[in-house]
Amino acid sequence: MAFLLQGDDVLHQVNPSPLPDPYWVAFSASAAKLIDIPLGQDKYPKDPKWLEVLAGNRLDHGSHQFDRPIATAYSGHQFGVWAGQLGDGRAILLGDIHGQELQLKGAGKTRYSRMGDGRAVLRSSIREFLCSEAMHGLDIPTSRALAVVGSNEPVHREEIETAAVCTRLAPSFLRIGHFEHYASLQKQGRLQELADYLIKHFYPECQSSTEPYLDLFKAISAKTARLVAQWQAVGFCHGVLNTDNISALGLTIDYGPFGFLDHFQIDHICNHSDTSGRYAYHRQPQIMHWNMACLASAMCPLLELKHPSEIAQTLLRTALEEFPKIYTNNWQSLFRTKLGLQTSQHEDITLIERLLQTMHDARVDFTFFFRALANYDSINLQPPKEARDLFNHLAVIDEWFKDYGHRLQSEKSVDEKRKILMKACNPKFILRNHLAQHAIEKAQAHDYSEVSKLLGILEHPFDEQEDNEAYANPPSIEHRAVEVSCSS
């Protein structure tokens, strides 16, 4: 964030608040490779000083001098309402290492903490850690989670919990809210600096364009459209798609009350604080399109440097219309692949929609069904028993299975080859809420073994992992009631 390191109007230089008596809760060896941290046999850093750095207790480590930690200001729309200035209320950016920004979440108060205490709790830190790495395992663009450091320091939420710091990595944590912030304050110079920085470092293809800012908007919008299509294809619900939670790089960031679908419900709400269902599963594409409209509005002054206002608005409005097209094309392609279809036919969309409606009506487990479907016998039009048994209206799903089999036969595909391809895109393992909750409860009793085990499983979600079969099963009825909220 080199452009942000000039001027008090865009950042707050602040040191992390020390975390008393820190200890390791979790560590990602995979994420550590991004910043070249040598690890010991226990898969934690060889140098114990890293524990103090990632707890926020020291600002230097060998050649790394984190002498200007910062929190940044941004603004945004929250649940569709303009919220004005927001900012990093408990996230402090230490600096850059090997092209990755190193950020501590839960490291204490900043200028933007408002009424908050600047801390994160163990519960939410473990959830963010596991889901960040799970999304990476699913090959979905995401910020990474390097570590969770715990402490016995009490933190008051609905009840007294303990503090933790989650270390996040990303090429940049710039978000749509940064554009909205500078636009709302009419700071055109800052807005231009932000856009130029993004073009130079992350969207170099826009540099030679005659319309660099318009093309930057198109690039961000296209990445976001592809991202939300990937979410829908694995049944991921973000929970709080406010504009200040949307990455300018098309990454999944700010894991709060997220959830993966268990039993499929098209209008599933993963955040029980979302009483209107604004961020329900089926509304995520629409909301992301709305967020891109907010970005277009914030970037309009950049196009007005070259064009009259009316023309600038028309150019952005036309570019914005591409979002649903890009999303739809990607969504259709992903679901064809999930069904093992290697060619495109017009009737495929009806086939997909019929299936999803039947799954919704029967509340079928999303991940389990698509994984099991790989075992369909297209020669004899025989559905796998474990997939068929998920449905209660067998006549309806049997008719679909028959039509699906005929569609597979039309491609003359080899079942074994199709099976391999389907299992390479339909995960066996996801971060189910009840699995995360079990790991959290053990961690709250100072047993972190389940966090490490879940991490290992989720790093390879497409593998069979016969020894971990229980982690692939749908939750029991009593475990379906696990709820999450914005409290963290």
Give the overall average pLDDT. 94
Total number of distinct structural domains:
3
Order of helices and strands: EEHHEEEEEEEEHEEHHHEEHHHHHHHHHH
Count of DSSP helices? 16
Main sheet, how many strands, which sense, barrel? Answer: 6 strands, antiparallel
CA-atom Rg in angstroms: 23 Å
Percent helix: 40-55%
Structural class assignment: alpha+beta
Anisotropy-based shape: globular
Tally of extended strands? Answer: 14
Distance between the termini: 26 Å
Q: Uncertain regions: pLDDT < 50 for 5+ in a row?
A: none
Strand content: 5-15%
Function: Nucleotidyltransferase involved in the post-translational modification of proteins. It can catalyze the addition of adenosine monophosphate (AMP) or uridine monophosphate (UMP) to a protein, resulting in modifications known as AMPylation and UMPylation.
EC number: 2.7.7.-, 2.7.7.108
Pfam families: SelO (PF02696)
Binding site for ATP: 87, 89-90, 105, 117-118, 168, 175, 254
How does this structure look, described?
The chain has 488 residues and is of the alpha+beta class. It has 3 domains: 2-170, no CATH class; 176-332, no CATH class; 339-423, no CATH class. Helix content is 40%, strand content 14%. It contains 16 helices and 14 strands. Strands 2, 8, 9, 10, 11 and 12 form a 6-stranded antiparallel β-sheet that branches. Strand 11 and strand 12 form a beta hairpin. Helix 6 runs antiparallel to helix 7 (284-303). The relative contact order is 0.11. The model has no long low-confidence stretch (mean pLDDT 94).
